[in-house]
Amino acid sequence: MSADRFGNKIDPSVGFARGRFLTDSAAEIRRMRHGQAVAARHDPERIAIFTGNPRYFPLKSEDLTLWCEEWVGPGHFAERLLEAAIGHFGGGDTAAVVNRTSAGIVATALAHAGGSPIVSLVPEGDRSHASLVRGAALARAPLVEVSSLDALRVALTKHAPKLLAITSVTSTLARIEDELIRAGIAAGKAAGATVFLDEAYGARLRPVLHGGAKSLTMGADFAITNADKAGLSGPRAGVLCGTEAPVIATLAKASELGQEARAPIAAGAMRSLENFNPQDLLDEARDGQSIADILEARWGANVVERSDLGPMVGEEDVLSRVLASANRNGADLAPAEASALVGMLMLGHHGALTVNTHGAPGGRVSLRLKPVAGALARVGGAEALADGLDAAIASVGRRLDDDAWIAATLFGEG
């Protein structure tokens, strides 16, 4: 698809249309930094996180001396980190921590593409994470995306990839069934590819919510997960685990690029794995469904897409609601800008923090509401959250032609 329903040209590197304000990654950084400034105006105890990422730092005071010492500390907790990772992934020979899951995916592409195309198995109708797209570009490797076993087999035969990446659960929480994951891994291994699982969400979401298998019990060479989403507390980091050769090669490339996690982050990621309680994820899923129930009743099931952790409303549907509130057919505003404006108003007025204010450049720009523990209560419940969203949409509708207000809301300018 080259354009959205409003005729805006889609940037294929990110999968959404840029606009007059959110023109590029630098503009997204300016938006994120302003979001951070707006969040800082609130009492931290009142911030309600709807990104699905708590990003707490779970180290204890006694961890801060030895473990956080850069030269000696990692050697003291290395075995404990490996034990926690093996338990979480269901196998593996070695583990490593990188400063972001995105960094680990980029390093994976650079370390393993080997001059051939990268084949990526993704859920039907969805796509690879932006970090794999960018990693493939940096590796000068075409990225070939497929969504079925037949298409995967064709791609493996045609392209003879050295790397097969499988995204079990995407950032929109679209999911591949375990049966297809297993078959895809087997096909990749038979074709001689190194098989990598992007399990940012899947390492917990599949086993806990769907009774699926742990990541490394299905035959992949290695996998990565976030230390700060789907029931994990943080810090923001990516945990790699698997057989030694691909993990070490990926860590080596990450270290060359300054993407490896330093001792405090690695120790925090280890604590996050150790502290994981499946009930936390079940509670998050319950709260997310209560939000989806309310928004479906108000906006319609054709607009609200349910995920395991909460509702998603596409950025184009957000702009459509904004235009409807203003009784207009169009405006010189991109859907990504409409969802960002709604996010900024929700953050400023209600302390509701979403990816629309704090998401990294190139991330999804849909309105996604994945509450962490306690977030829904902090905004007064699902009805109050929906009231705030309706008010924010109406506010954007009233200011569609006010460029100064739009810039001030997105970037704090003027």
Give the strand line-up of the largest sheet: 4-10-9-8-7-5-6
Taken as a percent bin, the fraction of beta residues is 5-15%
Please estimate the helix content: 40-55%
Number of strands: 14
Q: H/E order of the elements?
A: EEHEHEHEHEHEHEHEEHHHEEHHEHEHHH
Contiguous uncertain segments of 5+ residues: none
Secondary structure topology:
Blueprint lengths: L9 E2 L4 E2 L7 H16 L7 E2 L23 H17 L4 E5 L2 H12 L5 E4 L8 H9 L4 E4 L2 H11 L3 E5 L10 H13 L3 E5 L3 H9 L11 E5 L11 E5 L1 H13 L6 H12 L3 H22 L4 E4 L2 E4 L1 H11 L9 H16 L1 E2 L1 H4 L8 E2 L6 H4 L3 H17 L4 H9 L3
Parallel strand pairs: 3-13, 5-6, 5-7, 7-8, 8-9
Antiparallel strand pairs: 1-2, 4-10, 9-10, 11-12, 12-14
Helix pairs in contact: 1-12, 2-9, 3-4, 3-8, 5-6, 10-15, 11-12, 11-15, 12-15
Give a concise summary.
This protein is α/β, with parallel strands linked by helices and 414 residues long.
Verbal overview:
It is a single chain. With 414 residues, the chain is an alpha/beta fold. It has two domains: 10-52 and 278-411, Aspartate Aminotransferase, domain 1 (Alpha-Beta Complex), CATH 3.90.1150; 61-274, Aspartate Aminotransferase, domain 2 (3-Layer(aba) Sandwich). Helices cover 47% and strands 12% of the residues. It contains 16 helices and 14 strands. Helix 3 runs parallel beside helix 4 (130-138), helix 3 (101-112) crosses helix 8 (244-256) and helix 11 (315-325) crosses helix 15 (382-398). It is globular and about 60 Å long. The two termini are 36 Å apart.
